[in-house]
């Protein structure tokens, strides 16, 4: 083999002529870490740098994929050769003789990334084997959704370099017209959290897996349930408008405990009348003990119809409360 005469041969290197651009990791089995943010950022910066300077790859005169010594490597560093406006790749051993960032820190990031990939593969297999593959599909959909939102934000900011800002609460501001991320529902968020934990820890208990399947079933039936609720709401009568206190009677649909920081803590309940309208308010102390969903209650209260939904209202100052479903069943 003829001796090399190119400017990137080991004997001709001038450290001051090279500027570090990025590290990379490309094993023989493919770009398995292509989604990793630290790799994507480096590659994006490399493309930006090359486009800005109109540079190009140097011709590789070596026998391997290291442009300097010719060795084969999966960890690499990219440098810009200022005098020639060329870019070269080299292994980390050769990169250590040039001025570059901490290669060991990069290798640690790769190790973490590989562990994450292994965790994802195992998690996918575990979920599919358990008949919960829909949880993994949701996990992948979440990644795609967030990536699409990031691209939408990027395009919007390029089109609006000087956006109008408005106050967003006492301590922040937001851009007028900027894309707004629509997060998943409660059940989906719990599933995503469980999948993330499975990826991290590599295991999931039978109890947790059972709950995961319950959540997936709820998610699957959500459109059907939403349609049924919409039809029910459309058929519901409006909350009666009456002066003073009057008797409310209906089924307890839900009960909410007071929040830790509520200024006036009290248990609340949602009551549905047989005519379809619903009211929300504090549970009277007389029936609080033992009250549960599905119980039928009767009480006197002042009721105000909601301004946003005629079939929904709020009751206050309840009195003479009783649970009559249990009494009737006992009889």
List keywords for this structure.
3 domains; elongated; alpha+beta; 5-stranded mixed barrel; 11 strands; OB fold (Dihydrolipoamide Acetyltransferase, E2P); 40% helix; 4-stranded mixed β-sheet; 331 residues
Helix count from the secondary structure assignment: 8
Helical content (DSSP H or I, runs of 4+) = 25-40%
| Domains, number | 3
Mean pLDDT: 91
- Most strands sheet: 5 strands, mixed, barrel
- Which percent range describes the beta-strand content? 15-25%
Q: Given the helix and strand composition, which structural class is it? A: alpha+beta
Strands side by side in the biggest sheet: 7-8-9-11-10
**Uncertain segments:** none
Shape: elongated
The N- to C-terminal Cα distance equals 103 Å
Series of secondary-structure elements, N-terminal to C-terminal:
EHEEEHHHEEHHEEEHEEH
């Amino acid at each position: 083999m003829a001796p090399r005469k190119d400017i990137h041969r080991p004997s001709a290197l001038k450290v001051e002529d090279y500027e570090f651009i990025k590290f990379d990791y490309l094993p023989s089995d493919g770009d398995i870490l292509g989604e990793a943010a630290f790799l994507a950022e480096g590659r994006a910066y490399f493309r930006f740098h090359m486009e800005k300077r109109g540079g190009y790859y140097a011709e590789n005169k070596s026998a391997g994929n290291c442009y300097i010594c010719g060795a084969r490597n999966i960890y690499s560093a990219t440098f810009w050769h200022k005098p020639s406006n060329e870019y070269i790749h080299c292994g980390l051993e050769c990169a250590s003789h040039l001025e570059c960032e901490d290669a060991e820190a990069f290798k640690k990031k790769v190790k973490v990334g590989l562990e994450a990939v292994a965790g994802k593969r195992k998690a996918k297999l575990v979920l599919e084997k358990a008949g919960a593959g829909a949880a993994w599909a949701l996990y992948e959909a979440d990644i795609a959704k967030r990536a699409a939102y990031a691209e939408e934000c990027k395009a919007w900011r390029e089109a609006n370099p000087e956006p109008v800002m408005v106050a967003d609460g006492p301590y922040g501001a937001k851009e007028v017209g900027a894309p707004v991320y629509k997060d998943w529902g409660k059940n989906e968020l719990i599933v995503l959290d469980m999948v993330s934990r499975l990826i991290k820890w590599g295991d999931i208990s039978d109890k947790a897996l059972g709950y995961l399947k319950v959540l997936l079933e709820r998610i699957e039936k959500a459109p059907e349930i939403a349609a049924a609720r919409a039809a029910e709401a459309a058929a519901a009568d409006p909350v009666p408008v009456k002066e003073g206190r009057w008797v409310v009677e209906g089924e307890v649909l839900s009960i909410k405990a007071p929040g830790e920081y509520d200024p006036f803590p009290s248990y609340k309940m949602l009551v549905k009348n047989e005519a379809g309208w619903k009211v929300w308010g504090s549970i009277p102390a007389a029936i609080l003990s033992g009250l549960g969903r599905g119980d039928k209650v009767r009480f006197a209260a002042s009721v105000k119809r909601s301004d946003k939904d005629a079939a929904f209202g709020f009751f206050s100052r309840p009195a003479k409360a009783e649970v009559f479903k249990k009494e009737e069943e006992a009889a």
